[in-house]
Amino acid sequence: MSSGTAEFDAKCTHAPCRSCAAKGLLPILDLGQSPLADGLRTQEQLTQPEPKFPLQVAFCEKCGLVQILETVPPQELFLGDYPYYSSFSPALLTHSRDNALDLIKSRKLNGSSLVVELASNDGYLLENFVEAGVPVLGIDPAPGPAAAAQRAGVRTMNTFFDLDLAKRLRDQSHRADVIIANNVLAHVADTNGFVEGIHALLKDDGVAVIEVPYVRDLIDHGEFDTIYHEHLCYFSATSVDALFRRHGLYLNDVKRLSIHGGSLRLYFGPTDNVQPAVKNLMAEEREIGVDRYPFFEQFGKRVSEVRRLLRNLMGELCGKSKRIAAYGAAAKGTTLLNYVGIGTDQIDFVVDRNVHKHGKFMPGVHIPIKAPEKLSELQPDYVLLLAWNFKDEIMAQQSDYLSKGGRFIVPIPSPQVV
Ligand code: DWN
Fold first, then answer.
1. pLDDT band at residue 2, thresholds of 50, 70 and 90?
2. Is the pLDDT confidence value at 413 over 60?
3. What integer pLDDT is reported at residue 79 of this predicted model?
4. Given a cut of 70, is residue 1 above it in pLDDT?
5. Closest Cα partner for 86 from 38, 39, 137?
6. Which residue puts its alpha carbon closest to atom 17 of ligand 1?
7. CATH fold of 299-417
8. How far is CA 393 from the centre of its chain?
């Protein structure tokens, strides 16, 4: 469960960095064998073997990139019935609309512009540009969300984005004024090819606006559960700047966001026009050491302590015959439940607004997933909040459950009953 095992060290020594290809990565955290975070199980699959893969995190001293060592084939992660639909998170919809309206205004987008979104999911973001009369192209490999986007009138290619596709689009005279890529950069196995593809597709005066979870927030707030096989890389401004400069793109502006437990919104362009916000954030990272190994070295011990505290709390409540459910059939919930060892003996069911997840079971621990209405109907004593990144919104929704004495357990950064 922590860095330093001989097997883990050996893999770190030989694995090339996903960004700069340097050898000699340094171990940060070993979360053991973990199932695929969005690999929800059907009733029939419960009796079948379930794939699990090593979940080990390491640091590259050369370019500062934090990354996992295992690469699960993207076809296994994002095809089939990939269950994540962005539109089931109202907070995310608001966040995304604000971003779209800001870009339409700041970039003076119109009917002659082109906005391309990589990992466009169910059209949750591009629909704002469509509404404003700005031509769009969504690209997403997941069949379900891509079909939902097409039904919503968002032009979408159901495929992976890579350098070859970028070149084909460019050869067909498709060049983007804006490329948006939210929560996807960390997901691609060919990190460099993906970035090169962005450069190939972007107009010379275009901008790539990219959101990634911020590794500094992950460490500061103990968000170990956001580590899973879909997330191959965990970016800082330092490491993402090095990656993009390698492909002729400059990090010209940056904003820190609270979404998803803390993210960066990064603005890249083909010309060097670096704003003070970038220089200041990079200076901060050097100051606190986000670009150096010691910042990450003790994370494993902190994660083990959170695991101990949550196990004790769950054991104590179950020991008092308290009934416990969970909220959010989230990918991060898979990592937390499997690493901590929380299963059907402690959690009766998980609720989630995403109807595509109902009737399925959490990966690895096989806890059944139901609609949120079950909380008021069955009134469990406690609800473990797996989607803690939407705490305020979810607790506001569940005022009825709370008014009847229900309590939430917020597991991150440290277990707390609220
Ligand atoms: O990177 C990724 C992030 C952005 O989204 C993807 N690889 C996978 C996914 O990770 P996640 O499932 O941990 O993300 P969320 O958005 O934190 O998951 C929240 C879950 O909670 C979703 O299943 C939707 C659900 N939800 C709900 O039931 N009621 C969310 C809200 C806001 C709600 O009110």
1. very low
2. yes
3. 83
4. no
5. 38
6. 387
7. Rossmann fold (3.40.50)
8. 19
High-pLDDT (> 90) share of the chain, %: 96
Do 299-417 and 86-285 have the same topology in CATH?
A: yes
DSSP, residue by residue, 41-63: BPTGGGGS---EEEEEEEE-TTT
Q: Whose C-alpha lies nearest to ligand 1, atom 10?
A: 331
Probe residue for ligand 1, chosen from 117, 183, 353 as the CB with the greatest number of ligand atoms within 8 Å? 353
Give the other-Cβ count within 10 Å of 226's Cβ: 24
What whole-number distance in Å separates Cα of residue 411 and Cα of residue 74? 29
Burial of 373 per CB tally in 10 Å (0-12, 13-18, 19+): exposed
Q: Which residue(s) pair with 234 in the sheet?
A: 66
Q: What is the pLDDT of residue 80?
A: 86
3-class SS of residue 368: strand
351-393 pLDDT per residue, tens: 999 999 999 999 999 999 999 999 999 999 999 999 999 999 9
The ligand 1 site (C-beta within 6 Å) comprises 84, 88-91, 183, 230, 260, 328-332, 352-354, 387, 389-390, 393-394, 397
Cβ atoms of 186 and 157 within 8 Å: the answer is: no
Q: Which atom of ligand 1 is nearest to the CA of 332?
A: 13
Query: Would you state the structure tokens that stand for residue 4, as one six-digit string?
Result: 């330093």
Please tell me the distance between residue 286's alpha carbon and the centre of ligand 1 in angstroms: 32
Please report, for the chain, the start and end positions of each structural domain, with discontinuous segments joined by +.
6-69, 86-285, 299-417
pLDDT at 100 over 60: yes
Residue 3 pLDDT exceeds 80: no
Pick the CATH number of 86-285 from 3.60.10.10, 1.10.287.180, 3.40.50.150, 3.40.50.2300: 3.40.50.150
pLDDT band at 4 (very low <50, low <70, confident <90, very high): low
Give the three-state DSSP class for 244. helix
Which is higher by pLDDT, 383 or 76?
383
* 259's tokens: 């979404």
Selection from 230, 142, 149 nearest residue 183 by Cα? 230
